[in-house]
User: What shape does this take?
Amino acid sequence: MKYGFFDDANREYCITTPFTPLPWINYLGNDGFFGLISNTAGGYCFYRDAKLRRITRYRYNNIPNDIGGRLYYIKDGNTVWSPAYRPAETELDSYECRHGMGYTTFNSTKDGVNAKLTFFVPLGDACELHRLEVVNNSNETKDLTLYSGIEWCLWNAVDDSQNYQRNLSIGELEVIGSTIYHKTEYRERRNHYAFFTVNTEVDGFDTDRDVFLGAGRAWNKPVQVENGKSGNTVASGWYPIASHSIKVTLAPGEKKSYVFQLGYIEVPRDQKWESKGIINKKPAVELINKYNSDAAFEAAFKALKDYWDNLLSIYHVESKDEKVNRMVNIWHQYQVMVTFNMSRSASYWETGIGRGMGFRDSCQDLLGFMHLIPERARDRIIDIASIQFENGSTYHQYQPLTKRGNADIGGGFNDDPLWLVACTAAYIRETGDTTILDHPTPFNNVEGSEKPLMEHLRRSINFTINNKGPHGLPLIGRADWNDCLNLNCFSEEPGESFQTFGPSEGPVAESVFIAGMFVKYGKEYADICDYVGLKDEADSIRAEVEKVKTATEEFGWDGEWFLRAYDAYGNKVGSNECEEGKIFIEPQGFCTMAGIGQEKGFGAKALDSLYKYLVNDYGIEILAPCYTTYHVELGEISSYPPGYKENGAIFTHNNPWCSVAATVIGDAEKAFDIYKRSCPAFLEDVSEIHRTEPYVYSQMIAGRAAVHYGEAKNSFLTGTAAWVVVDITQAILGVQPTLQGLSIKPCVTKDFGNYSVVRKYRGAKYDINVIQDGSGKGLVVDGAAVEGNLIPAVEGKKEYKVEFYI
Ligand code: BGC
Assistant: This one.
């Protein structure tokens, strides 16, 4: 069953009912101001940091879980309705929500009135624009009252939801004309405020939630709206909101349009005040004036569309598979942008008050983002590297506003450092820009500790070399990629953090997964060394890689698949000898990608074992059989009920590893099959089972052992997005950036047929046609046959015509 349809021409998903199984959301904003918006206009917004600069309030564990957000009401006689269905929840005559690239629109009708709502964040400005257009399609004149509404959050989203004894006395506002300014805490240490305005004179406003709603009422039935009034209240303390009311008379056929703006302003500290207690509104007024007309709104909306046209023209495929085209050309790349912006910080499922930006998460998000805006990727790499410690280990997370490491969780996740090598290598492959390696980058953000980025990479690599266990395999620390495999922690009391409890690091527990990473990224590091002329270092790192490879072949192979780890007692994890958790997906993907045991056929066997034990209808599960009891020596992984999360769900992030791994051993069938199984567009028809959005990946899909097999959770913020881009665009379709230039190496099934890719790369445009005529002729560039896979780059050349014959 479906709840809408893809509109590829407009790059939208059109949702045709407000009653999706879960809120189906979208993201507004590119840099700075961000909003999350659901298919009933719910959600919240913030500036840079969803914890420290929350602008509007969101209630977790709410019922319905999507109430609040952007509140628009139309009062038509005795009927009050909302174009996004919520908050009024009045049955509509028609409803449509379209999520597009950085914007969301609603188009609904009730009793002859059509209303369109459009939401987006204009490029380069810290505000969200909302346009409400109303048309009278009936034969009678309509006297309507329109209401807007948002609820302010008192900035720090954690304090906002817990420190009521203070909060309920601190709310402060100013109202000037149609603009409501939220200035809580501005009187003391803050130098920022927010505003909500509309480009017309209003008939009234409310900023006191209790007055607007009326005693005992909720957003679906505000008493003011019901009575067609506004109280012109200026709240003091309690619950500040912002609501406008506008009376409008529409003759038959008449249309009116209003542009609302929700903005965020920072003021230099010495210019905070206009006069005593009155905030400096100059910068706000400038921003308000910039978007105060339909024309300005439309120009900004067009600029946003042009921006996306341009981004999505960098990689474009045309194949006979409509779903592949749709996902590659639109939604995979879009999701990558969202994960680049958010990491795992803010969604409907990631509260925005938790973990900020993850080190490994952000590094991996970059792998799929690199081609879109390499300059921003470069800045991000430097930010991430700046939370590394001098010994090469790293903080596990950092706060987006401060860019400082999160001391509550600290470091000790031994895979983290290697991801820095992964993303930097990908950056250089994309851009050829090695100057990034010279960039002075601090350790732990300490001024004066700056060393060239290359030194950070070196310390990352050496961290693994210097932290190996009894089998010569890398020590795992608190956990590796799988945050829930806690082999050193031994937590027995509820409420303790599984990762940081106890010693958390030990001299015995080893990770075969990190071994795979080291072999793969050690080679990539050595390639960079060669590329910048550090030949001796390249050789010595390759020798280290060889050692770990040999150790993995000897001690990390279980006969039919790769082991997962050795625990703190030196016992095997992920072995046929284990009762539960016999096989894990991660090392099969990573060790095969790394080419470990290639000559011995390990990769093919490992992937066959995945198909034998872990493949289900929607992807590949993370492990089997699931743990049925809590194992203190394994940690959080065994805390989940079987089939969920890291205990046997499809943890979608690692599925593309296996698809890429299949291409490494030349198995096109498996590569494409794995890609398709969990790909959202391929699951659209079972949306009632899958439940999350069919246009983006979710973090997990419950496995066969789960009570709700096939049900997905935690949509949007998953590293799957980036890895899938790497998988389908580079490994399968075969357009691969390398240090030396663009390389063409498809791994596609016969059935996939011919296809073409347009790729913009290092300042040139490549028109690539892959032709499956059975000739096996390989690469032809501008009519001339070329040996191998690399397109020879010609200085100053702007266009390449490329054929690749299979
Ligand atoms: C975390 C990742 C981790 C994954 C698997 C995600 O929630 O953000 O860092 O690799 O879970 O445990």
Notes: Residues 468 and 474 are 4 Å apart (CA to CA). Residues 344, 358, 360-361, 481-484, 646 surround beta-D-glucopyranose (CB under 6 Å). The radius of gyration is 27 Å. The chain is about 25% helix and 25% strand.
